[in-house]
Amino acid sequence: MPTMISGGSRREVLTAASLSALVAVLLPRMAFADEKSVQAEMKKLFGDKTFESGRVKLDVPQIAENGLVVPINIEVESPMTADDYVKAVHVFADGNPQPVVISYHFTPECGKASAATRMRLAQTQNVICVAEMSNGKLFSTKSEIKVTIGGCGG
User: Fold this and answer.
1) What is this structure's pTM?
2) Whole-number Å distance between alpha carbons of 61 and 16
3) For 59, which of 65, 73, 115, 122 could close a Cys bridge (C-beta 3.0–4.6 Å)?
4) pLDDT (tens digit, 9 = 90+) per residue, 14-59?
């Protein structure tokens, strides 16, 4: 008769332990972006250009009860004419699996540079919004969101 260990045979326990060790090795652990990866991504997109403050309004909650559905509203002050408009708005998060959350592209025909969506946040982190203007200027703003329950599997 086989020896019993915690309600299962020795063979069952060893098989279960081996399988869980194999799963731990084979499944990649979720890596999160950090401030350095966000900065690297921003450098890739914008080079060494400087960021100005103002013109970008980022409306996000200070505390997100559930990181699975965090509302985000963006509005950039611009006349949206052929000579002066917002080309793109990029949103970065320094605690998510990928540093770039979303990018919106605009034309003067949009009439207004604004967007609203929901995003997932894995943990308390900074959300950075950068507006790229038609004349090459960059405007940015940052907001910290405290997440009580992560929405990215964490």
Assistant:
1) 0.76
2) 44
3) 73
4) 666 555 554 444 444 456 778 898 999 999 999 999 999 999 999 9
